[in-house]
Amino acid sequence: MASLLRVDASIRTEGSVSRAVADSAVEAWRAAHSDAEVVHRDLAASPLPAEAWARALTAGTTLEESRTPEQRDALELVATLASELLGADALVLASPLYNFGVSQHTKVWIDLLVADPRLGPGSTALQDKPALLVVAQGGGYREGTPRHGWDHSTSYLERIFGDSFGMDLRTVVADLTHAGANPAMAHLAEAAERSLSAAHEDATRHGRSLGIAA
Ligand SMILES: Cc1cc2nc3c(=O)[nH]c(=O)nc-3n(C[C@H](O)[C@H](O)[C@H](O)COP(=O)(O)O)c2cc1C
Predict the structure, then answer these.
(1) What is the pLDDT of residue 181?
(2) Ligand 1 center to residue 70 CA distance, Å?
(3) What global pTM score does this model have?
């Protein structure tokens, strides 16, 4: 059975653009895989404990019999998260831009993943595994815009999943999501609509082909 890991991080459940675009990808993926399982990890609804990361790292340098119950729990969480990703045939990660960076919930998840020896530096365990990164941004950061370079989330996520883990990563961006609500961005409403509709189309196309050899 094919399996997809879907990870959400938007703090919104209603009106979330990253969730809606990820829905398009997952729907297309389900349609292309008759016998399929989607594992859902919602990092915003069920945040991972930030303190687990340091506990897992210190557990690694502590003799097994001397580890505290908290360190053992942290190691178990690390192994669970890494196994979830390693066990999936493909990943869809929906990522909102917050304060020009990655959501804290996503950062905790990534730090815990990298703490697993199977996914640490030099690991090839995820090499070429298909992944789709869905990005939602209230503003616009494309080349030529005044704030080009201010989005410190997308390049970081591409670095981790594409370059470090070596996954076969595609990225879809829905930007200007605040254009409808922010009067100062009213002139960008059409561009926002175009961006959203292109994001859904791209997510559908990628969702259909994720994990299917060309
Ligand atoms: C706390 C907070 C901080 C945000 N910071 C930024 C930001 O730095 N740049 C930006 O373009 N949008 C920012 N936004 C807007 C979100 O990126 C935008 O609403 C996006 O659509 C969120 O994803 P979602 O629709 O899936 O919830 C922020 C939103 C919130 C709630």
Answers:
(1) 87
(2) 33
(3) 0.96
